[in-house]
Design brief:
20% strand, binds zinc ion, four-stranded antiparallel sheet, alpha+beta, five-stranded mixed sheet, 2 domains
């Protein structure tokens, strides 16, 4: 059994958008109701399960929250169910004790938990009590829907749909028994996102650099607005839209590069980046956090894992840049500004990043 999730942007009309906000509000109210009930239980040395809390909530909801009768009851049910999971994890020491949700927090609710109430047909999704909403793209996977979470970020609605694939036989990403691709070493960097030992390079869009002036301008405007005012709220939205745009450009570049790499490789060698250490170098910090190399490596790892491609992480003391990929000679005086690698032993003349990538290539 394989679970796959896909997050798709929704394009609701105004009414649907309001309805989704109402459901998210209902989920928040139910969660908070459940949490306070659970706390009361704890004070009385009583462990209230999500079933107990749900029963308690259902008994009073039409009196206390009569507006909820027009909404899907899945929203409250799943909110309390998730609260149950959260306190179980807290009991096991896996996370902190859950906190109350407030209006300014994340706007989301779980519309389906495998009840089969949400339907997807091509580029449309049917949510209970709301109806059919258009989606930006179709589902990539087919199978049984096990979970649907509706959420809003930066004024945009998304549906995160998890599917259970029962037929693993014709699974698109089944790792082949024999992978005839070569092993690939990757040097990740700031100027070039990834340089591969086979000569492929993937550029870094460095979106922050491009949007730096716009970001600064919107930030200044925001600083001038009165805190908590309507105009301040509007400007905050504009500012977060710029941030969202930057994040999207970066994510897209990472997805494109990583998928292309894993399609060409049978094994991957990379360097363990001590990103926190590199961030201490103030000259590098801005450029580094802009390229967000950590996100790149995370995507590379899970995509390789799905295809059964092993990832070899070089020891962080391995001098991938200073070693000659041809003869193994170590050049001690290589500086960051040397873009070309000249070997004094064998005469190799090669691009610095390509040399490092070749050294990282698993054998
Ligand atoms: Zn050499």
């Amino acid at each position: 059994m394989i679970l796959r999730s896909q997050k798709i942007e929704l394009t609701p009309n105004n009414k649907q958008s309001t309805q989704m906000s109402q459901h998210a509000g209902y989920a928040r109210v139910a969660f908070n109701f459940g949490l306070s009930s659970f706390k009361v239980g704890l004070d009385q040395d009583e462990w209230r399960s999500h079933v107990d809390i749900k029963r308690e909530f259902n008994a009073v909801k039409y009196d206390k929250f009569d507006w909820c009768k027009d909404l899907s009851q899945n929203a409250s049910k799943n909110a309390i169910h998730n609260l149950g999971d959260a306190v179980t994890r807290w009991k096991k020491g896996q996370n902190k004790f859950p906190v109350y949700k407030n209006r300014s927090g994340k706007c989301s609710y779980q519309a389906d938990n495998g009840e089969g109430t949400v339907k997807v047909h091509k580029k449309r999704i049917e949510l209970p009590k709301i109806g059919w909403i258009r989606m930006r793209e179709e589902l990539r996977y087919s199978g049984e829907i096990t979970k649907v979470v509706i959420s809003k970020h930066n004024d945009t609605w998304y549906a995160s749909i998890t599917m259970r694939r029962l037929d693993s036989s014709n699974y698109k990403y089944q790792p082949p028994l024999f992978n005839e691709n070569p092993p690939i070493g990757i040097d990740v960097g700031i100027n070039t996102l990834a340089t591969c030992s086979n000569g492929d390079t993937y550029g870094n869009p460095r979106p922050l650099k491009r949007y730096e002036r716009k970001l600064a301008r919107e930030n200044r405007k925001f600083a001038r607005k009165q805190k908590g005012s309507q105009n301040g709220y509007k400007q905050k939205k504009r500012l977060s839209a710029v941030h969202a745009r930057i994040a999207n450009i970066r994510e897209d570049a990472h997805h494109q590069a990583t998928i292309r790499i894993v399609r060409k490789a049978s094994a991957i060698g990379i360097e363990t980046l001590k990103i926190t250490n590199m961030l201490k170098n103030r000259k590098l910090a801005k450029a580094l956090s802009d390229s967000a190399l950590g996100g790149f490596l995370t995507k590379l790892k899970y995509k390789a894992d799905r295809r059964g491609i092993p990832i070899d992480e070089a020891d962080r003391f391995f001098a991938s840049s200073k070693t000659c990929s041809n003869c193994g000679h170590k050049k001690a005086d290589l500086t960051l500004s040397d873009r070309q690698y000249h070997c004094s032993e064998c005469g190799l003349d090669i691009d610095r990043d390509l040399n490092a990538a070749k050294n990282l290539c698993p054998t």
